[in-house]
Amino acid sequence: MQNAIQFNRSQKRPWGRLLLLLVSLAIGGGGVYFANTYISQEIQSIRQQFQKTEPMMDVVVPSQNLYRGDTVTEAVMSLRKIPAQYVDTNSVTTENYEIAKGQRLEFDIDSGTALLWAHLEGGVNPTFSGKVPDGMRALTVHVDEINSVSGFLQPKDRIDLLFTHGSGDKQKIRPLTDNLTVIATGVQTMIDKTGHDSQRMFNTITVQVAPLDAKKISLAQQIGSITAVLRNPEDDKAISDAVITLASLLDESEAPKPSAPAQPAPARTVTPPVKSIEYIIGGQR
Description:
Blueprint: H1 2-53, E1 56-62, E2 77-83, H2 97-100, E3 137-142, E4 158-165, E5 172-185, E6 204-209, H3 211-223, E7 225-231, E8 244-245, H4 246-249
Antiparallel strand pairs: 1-2, 3-6, 4-5, 4-7, 5-6, 5-8
């Protein structure tokens, strides 16, 4: 009898242990689940608070490692958002990037590092030559109020240049070169975005030209006058190379034609009378 009781007890023990194990696993799993959920919620809450309270700012960074002597161009630069409180006051941003563009680096700079004015040769006051692309030239052309488009020209405008030479009836005007980029009007090299000074007075414009065009324009200034013609920035068509003369301006076809000199009347030909022969028949005329 005692052996039978012991046998029954021994049979119940494995089931109890299994039940205890399952309960422990359930409690542990629940604890892990609730702990992960709590941690995720806290992280999300902190992240949302950080995004709401921390203003971000776009700064210019190189998209690759750059070295001393390299040029700042859009091809090697990109934007990166940085918390405003960590942005250096000397950083180049989207608002002042136009000043930095075209400058050369004074120091090496790693990819992703904020570009500072101290990295550039000219800093916030770059040399004008840094704005001229390789292979091009900056040429200053003298203009007056009329051929400066009455002072409305601005840097980055595109113009054609017309050349007038000769005098009197021999005066001619012809296209000199077209689709030039204005990089300065007088001493202004940046676009005026305030609208307070839309019409200014200046007597020179500086244009970006190829070396051969620089020679042509320089010679044209010495022997004639140059007129700037403003074009739409989206218009890339070449202008006509037709030469305009005074005769074509006045429309030569409508000008009165000179009268032809009077021709002498043709000489009249006098035909001599034909002599007749008289015949006498039968003694009568």
